């Protein structure tokens, strides 16, 4: 029987799923598992349906998005689906000239470097991303009791692409703006917070059961800089979507020193990479939040026994947590054997069955 939530009708089965229970820190029948980048190049069926279609084009085709999002659910029996899209989709949708280059990542034609450039970042409306609403409607019907995770890039990670003009190892242009023109930087991140929150709200209204904010590159920042120059914008995103009552996950890479602050930004669940053990991460985040993580994605190249030993270690260090969602510490690498992922899901489920 459906229950009415703030804006959409969600089934009790989704609300009672192990994934949402773990997000809410309730007892679970087994530890839920999903993988960042579970849809994508590790799957032959993905490579087949994507043949000849550009990454951004594929994100705008609801039927293709639905098929790609469902592929890892069918194959691996993960406990949640993640909406197939990319963090730069909302920027493309408001007219920023950018592309995703294979093997490179997002490339922005005219980087955002000045106050005049800020004017190009207009508000996002639901009409700009009507294909997202359509795809999520199709998806939630197909998914049944499996929850769908919506996502967006966090203001800092989006700003890193916009200011650099593409992927960077050092973020020198972005950081130069942050240190050298803090007023412009704050306004840029605030604009991105509004766009990001609007994009997440579209996904929640369409039926996403949880949302994840990817601040993948926040680990490049010292805690004091994160607190002063980044946290306010991410906190604004979490505040703006709080009213919908769906769990909010906050993830970054190399963020061991930032875990407490990333929790403070307002998330319900904090994502942990493989560099910090789950019990230590729990101490850094503090009480009242679930944790997600944190198997090193390269372990999947090491053979079944090694995968199980390292997965066991994750489960053991997470055993005292109030809510644990098993995941990798970062995304599935494209050359990963998909069978290793299927076996890992089964291993976590059988090891944790209560
Ligand atoms: O299954 C899922 O997790 C959903 C799909 C997803 C994609 N991008 C699809 C994608 C998600 C969650 C993202 C988020 C994303 N995009 C992040 C944050 C997550 C992270 O990995 O830290 C970032 C930093 C990006 C930017 C981006 N987009 C990069 C670095 C790349 C890789 C470039 C490459 O070719 O190696 C992309 C492209 C992209 N996004 C691909 C996919 C499946 C690969 C392109 C393809 O399959 O043709």
TrEMBL record:
It catalyses: uroporphyrinogen III + 4 H(+) = coproporphyrinogen III + 4 CO2. GO terms for biological process: protoporphyrinogen IX biosynthetic process. GO terms for molecular function: uroporphyrinogen decarboxylase activity. It is an enzyme of class 4 (lyase). GO terms for cellular component: cytosol. Its EC number is 4.1.1.37. Keywords: Cytoplasm, Decarboxylase, Lyase, Porphyrin biosynthesis. Residues 32-41, 149-165 form the Uroporphyrinogen decarboxylase (URO-D) domain. The keyword Cytoplasm applies. It is found in: Cytoplasm. The record marks 86 as: Transition state stabilizer. Substrate binds at residues 37-41, 86, 161, 216, 330. Pathway: Porphyrin-containing compound metabolism; protoporphyrin-IX biosynthesis; coproporphyrinogen-III from 5-aminolevulinate: step 4/4. Catalyzes the decarboxylation of four acetate groups of uroporphyrinogen-III to yield coproporphyrinogen-III. PANTHER family: METHYLTETRAHYDROFOLATE:HOMOCYSTEINE METHYLTRANSFERASE RELATED, UROPORPHYRINOGEN DECARBOXYLASE. Homodimer. Belongs to the uroporphyrinogen decarboxylase family. This is Uroporphyrinogen decarboxylase. It comes from Streptomyces toyocaensis. The gene is hemE.
